[in-house]
Structures are given as structure tokens and as C-alpha cells.
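User: I'm putting together notes for a lab meeting next week and I want to include a structural view of one of the chains we've been expressing. I don't have a solved structure, so I'd like a prediction I can at least talk through. The sequence is below, exactly as it appears in our construct file.
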Amino acid sequence: MAAVAGLPAGARAAVITVSDRSHVGLRPDASGPLLAELLAGLGFAVSDVVVVPDEAPAIAHAVVTAAGGHDLVVTTGGTGLAPRDVTPDAVLPLLDRTVPGLAEALRTENRERVPTTILSRAVAGTLGACLVVTLPGSPGGVRDGVAVLAPVVGHAVAQLRGGDH
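Assistant: Thanks for the context. Below is the predicted structure for the 165-residue chain, given as C-alpha cells.
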């Protein structure tokens, strides 16, 4: 992907993978590194990927910590219906404002090809001056999510930095 139009200089992104198995080393993290690569391709300086277990306190701590120094925080994993899929439950109470249109766009991207996308409980919103987005834990879900973010994330970051709307 090409760099995002309107992305302010020095824009920083953080990636958080939510996975019990990746956290303990039972499965390599495929979606976090891919997400970091795709965000870098959009023009973000991306920090090292952080991997946390499917535990609400760990997820919340990682998101709050990352939001303090980044324009964008994107999680991957834990947005489904499985009992340990708690990412939206951990992130939603942290948000100052939700961005429901973005979350809905994430659910409808490639819906014809992957009907289960509508089962995602992904959330998006702001935490201070940071945009926070939760994506599914699959590489395909990450690619689809970044495709949704690409045309709007530059404008969102500029607005959160106080730019004109």
C-alpha cells in the first residue's frame, strides 16, 4: 500500500496482538507483524509488536500504555464470539469517544467473500489524541482492516492532532 494522503509527519502507530497461544510461544504471531508491516507501508513509524494474553487487564494496560505515545493503536485478535475473545470488552470502557462508522466498515469489508465478518465485535474510538481500532486475529482480517483504515486514517490522525476538519 502507498503512504496515506494527509498523514501528519511523524505519525506513530502501535500494534498489540491478543493471543494466549502466541503470548506463551505455542504459536507464532502471524497477524501482528503483518499489521506492523502494512501500517509502516501507510507511512506510520511502527513500534515493536506487543503480544498479550486474552486477559482484559493485560489488554487494557497495553492499550493505555501505547496510546500515550502513539497516534494510532491497532489490536489484532480477540474480537470474535469465543469465550476468551475479550478485546472489545477490555477496550470499549477505555475510549473517550467511539467511532461506530469505522467499526461497522470493518465488519462489512469483504462480507460477500467472508460472511463471518459480521460476527466481529470490533470497536473503534479515541483515547485522548489516539485512534484505537480492534481487528480480528487472522492475516486476512488484518489486510481487510488496513484496507478500511487506509483512506481515512490520515484525516483521523490530523483531526486528533487538532487539525482543521
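A couple of points you could mention at the meeting. The domain at 12-160 is CATH 3.40.980.10 (Molybdenum Cofactor Biosythetic Enzyme; Chain A). The helical segments are 20-23, 31-41, 56-67, 87-91, 100-108, 139-149, 153-160.

User: Perfect, that's what I needed.
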